[in-house]
């Protein structure tokens, strides 16, 4: 029985999914901010989490996708990809190691280093390719801790006007807004509440995790990233951080006021995604009556918000199609699943 590991190496979080030939899975995720930690710390931490899922010698193949190459510890994305290839080549059997490309292919280490840019930000392609196996036409919304991907599948083919992050930002297929790590000052520089409009501090005082914790969209255990002030991950602490966005504090602003402010930020963030969805569906009219799949750690919040907005679209949680723990880290599962399918097709 072949066991395959899928690894999605993000700048903040690494996700690992183990799948066997019967498609039984185990998954885990861990926080490793590449821009803060030493690269030399990564191998030991990665292996400790991998071993929680399976002994390494029982894993037949290791498949890797990444977005961590964008971290500013690397001078270029090319350098970032090459460093990540080097990291995994130093800790895993090279003959069993394959990297996923934006073309939807798997390449070995020698080919990966020849064209490293092809590996940059490839995880959304895997997500689209996986769901294309289940539904021929769909719009997929994958919200993670940091970004939201809007992925188009038409006739079981992943469609995009451009494969790089730069082009996807231009074409409205990638939004730098996530459930946890987005600075609130990146959402807007002005905010209205109690019939008054306020300018906001352009400081890293609070992040979307604070808003979602206050509103009950996440719990303390789901606040998995660092806090802006290195403080506690409690609702009280989130209120304090949020108050600073208006250059204030919890003595000047009441919890009732701050709850209202959190709701305003929530609406602003949701509207960013909603506008993106409307833009793509107005371009791809044939998808307007097709399923909109919500996946990633932000899927349940998005589902709630979309349902409340009463858009005439068919929203479907990925939990209806795949396991809950897999829905939290879809790209990692997808690259393992797709590789496993390739092996089965070869055998058959």
What does this entry look like structurally?
By secondary structure, the chain is of the alpha/beta class. Helix content is about 35%, strand content about 20%. It contains eleven helices and 14 strands. The protein has helices spanning about 40-55, 75-90, 110-115, 125-135, 165-170, 210-215, 235-245, 255-285, 300-310, 325, 330-345; strands at about 5-10, 15-20, 25-30, 60-65, 95-100, 105, 140-145, 150-155, 155-160, 175, 190-195, 195-200, 290-295, 315. The strands form three sheets. It has a six-stranded mixed sheet, sandwiched between helices. α6 (about 210-215) crosses α8 (about 255-285). The radius of gyration is 20 Å and the shape is globular. The model has no long low-confidence stretch (mean pLDDT about 95).
Please work out how many helical segments DSSP would assign.
11
Q: What about the largest sheet? A: 6 strands, mixed
Portion of residues within helices: 25-40%
Largest beta sheet: what is the strand line-up?
3-2-1-4-5-6
- Secondary structural class: alpha/beta
Overall body shape:
globular
Rg over alpha carbons = 20 Å
DSSP strand content: 15-25%
Order of helices and strands: EEEHEHEEHHEEEHEEEHHHEHEHH
Low-pLDDT residue intervals, each spanning 5 or more residues: none
Q: Quote the average pLDDT.
A: 95
Tally the beta strands: 14
Measured distance between first and last alpha carbons: 15 Å
List the helices and strands and how they pair.
Blueprint: E1 3-9, E2 13-20, E3 25-31, H1 42-53, E4 61-66, H2 77-91, E5 97-100, E6 106-107, H3 109-114, H4 123-134, E7 138-143, E8 148-154, E9 157-159, H5 165-170, E10 174-175, E11 190-193, E12 196-199, H6 208-214, H7 235-244, H8 255-283, E13 291-295, H9 299-309, E14 314-317, H10 324-327, H11 330-347
Parallel strand pairs: 1-4, 4-5, 7-13, 13-14
Antiparallel strand pairs: 1-2, 2-3, 5-6, 7-8, 8-9, 8-10, 11-12
Helix pairs in contact: 4-11, 6-7, 6-8
């Amino acid at each position: 029985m072949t066991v395959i590991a899928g690894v999605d190496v993000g700048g903040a979080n690494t996700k690992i999914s183990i799948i066997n030939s019967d498609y039984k899975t185990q998954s885990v995720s861990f926080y490793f901010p590449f821009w803060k930690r030493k690269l030399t710390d990564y191998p030991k931490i990665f292996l400790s989490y991998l071993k929680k899922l399976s002994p390494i010698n029982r894993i037949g193949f290791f498949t890797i996708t990444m977005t961590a190459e964008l971290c500013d510890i690397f001078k270029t994305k090319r350098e970032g990809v090459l460093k990540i290839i080097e990291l995994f080549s130093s800790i895993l059997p090279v003959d069993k190691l394959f990297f996923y490309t934006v073309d939807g292919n798997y390449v070995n280490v020698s080919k990966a280093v020849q064209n490293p840019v092809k590996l940059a930000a490839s995880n959304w392609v895997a997500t689209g390719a996986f769901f294309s196996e289940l539904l021929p036409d769909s719009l997929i919304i994958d919200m993670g801790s940091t970004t939201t991907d809007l992925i188009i599948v038409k006739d079981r083919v992943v469609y995009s006007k451009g494969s790089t992050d730069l082009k996807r930002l231009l074409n409205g297929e990638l939004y730098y807004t996530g459930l946890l790590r987005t600075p609130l000052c990146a959402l807007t520089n002005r905010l209205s509440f109690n019939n008054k409009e306020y300018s906001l501090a352009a400081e890293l005082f609070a992040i979307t995790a604070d808003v979602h914790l206050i509103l009950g969209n996440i719990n303390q255990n789901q606040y998995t990233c660092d806090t802006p002030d290195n403080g506690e991950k409690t609702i009280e602490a989130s209120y304090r951080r949020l108050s600073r966005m208006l250059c204030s504090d919890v003595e000047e602003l009441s919890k009732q006021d701050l709850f209202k402010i959190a709701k305003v930020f929530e609406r602003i963030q949701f509207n960013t995604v909603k506008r993106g969805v409307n833009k793509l569906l107005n371009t791809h009219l044939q998808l307007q009556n097709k399923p909109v799949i919500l996946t990633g750690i932000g899927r349940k919040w998005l589902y709630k918000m979309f349902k409340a907005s009463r858009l005439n679209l068919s929203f479907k949680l990925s939990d209806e199609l795949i396991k809950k723990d897999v829905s939290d880290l879809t790209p990692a599962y997808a690259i393992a699943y797709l590789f496993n399918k390739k092996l089965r097709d070869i055998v058959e």
